[in-house]
Amino acid sequence: MIRKSYLAAFLVSMGVVALATPVVLAFARKYMLYDLPDADRKIHTLAVPRLGGIAIAMGILAPIIGLGFYGNDFSEQLKADSGRLVAFLGGALAILALGLVDDLRGVGAWGKLGVQSLVGLLLWESDLRVTSVSLFDQSIQLGLWSLPLTLLWVTGFINAMNLIDGLDGLAAGVAFFASVSLFSIAMFDGNGFLALMAATTAGAALGFLVFNFSPALIFMGDSGSMLFGYVFAVAGLWSATKRASLMALALPLISLGVPLFDTAFAFVRRAVAGKSPFHSDRKHIHHQLVAGGMSQRQAVLAIYLICCLLMVGAIAMRALDDVRVAVWLVGLTLVMIVTLRHFSRRPDSQGPHNAQIESVHRDEGETVDGDPNRLP
């Protein structure tokens, strides 16, 4: 029965997103809610409808809320942990609202960080926190460090997914691979809620990818990317409360290795340059790959490959119950990312305005020519 619940959650989530996205797309077009081109930090050359995060949220939350009204053994397990479940849902709605306001009107970096921190505090108060870590059969109590580390965890995951959302289909694909990884790990651990979140997130990501893969008809916006990050942050915290080991914390980090590494690298890069860590630029790994001559699809597929390897590695690490796998995996990932970044700096590259970019964001067969700011 429980395994059927996971499959049902995946299919319901994917179906809800597939049905809701065209409705959101029509709404965005009707009210002219577009993501406009920005040469400083965006690649797309046409205005593209946004707010796909609404459909994603519906897909992720519908199966979880639905189980609250459906009586079976699995729903009873969720109700037994109702405090954390309510905190998760409340935080998800807050992050969704924050993302929608940012998509429609704009929110400053510190404003977003403040709301994200408040959501992290809500989770911490609801006992979704890291209080100890087991390392070499020794339990390390975090004490007062529990709160700041939990806030760092939550804000880090949310912003990592937000920053990786720079090419058609990239964030949704990364979310899908990470979800499959976390679902497999949850099945090893017998962690029902983590498996449920992973199944609904995978379904939502796959359902949205149909409309978001290059050339994208709609963007997920900050509402979608931040919600994905929030779900992964909660998944990691929930897993850590069930199995307080270094591996429980390492596995979500590995599953989302690409966006987390890219975000950390971006913050270091900006700090070295004397800029704010929140200063937007076009130097993320996906930007560099396109600037180096790859098409959007090629860059996205290259990053998919890394995510797939991380997914397999994280599952193998849990199956073998060996942290040393993580060391090799992190090393391999760093080598691959550095290699890709080196490729993006080839002397024969034609730069960020390479002809590879000219076909981005065609809307219903419309080619990119004429006024680049013309609304589709």
Secondary structure: elements and pairs:
Blueprint: H1 2-30, E1 34-35, E2 48-49, H2 52-67, H3 73-80, H4 82-104, H5 109-125, E3 132-135, E4 138-141, H6 146-164, H7 170-189, H8 192-212, H9 221-242, H10 246-255, H11 257-272, H12 285-291, H13 296-320, H14 324-343
Antiparallel strand pairs: 1-2, 3-4
Helix pairs in contact: 1-2, 1-8, 2-4, 2-8, 2-9, 4-5, 4-9, 5-6, 6-9, 6-11, 7-8, 7-9, 7-13, 8-9, 9-10, 10-13, 13-14
Q: Kindly state the number of beta strands.
A: 4
Proportion of beta-strand residues: under 5%
Given helix and strand content, the structural type is mainly alpha
Which strand order does the major sheet show? 1-2
Estimate the helix proportion, in percent: 55-70%
Can you tell me the number of structural domains?
1
Please state the average pLDDT score: 82
Gyration radius, rounded: 20 Å
Q: Helix tally?
A: 14
Defining key terms:
single chain; mainly alpha; two-stranded antiparallel sheet; 3% strand; 376 residues; disordered C terminus
Structural notes for this entry:
The chain has helices spanning 2-30, 52-67, 73-80, 82-104, 109-125, 146-164, 170-189, 192-212, 221-242, 246-255, 257-272, 285-291, 296-320, 324-343; strands at 34-35, 48-49, 132-135, 138-141. The chain has one domain (2-131, 144-359). The chain is globular. The chain has a two-stranded antiparallel sheet with strand order 1-2. Helix 6 packs across helix 11 (257-272), helix 7 (170-189) runs parallel beside helix 13 and helix 13 (296-320) runs antiparallel to helix 14. It has 14 helices and 4 strands. The protein is mainly alpha-helical and 376 residues long. The model is unreliable at 347-376 (pLDDT under 50).
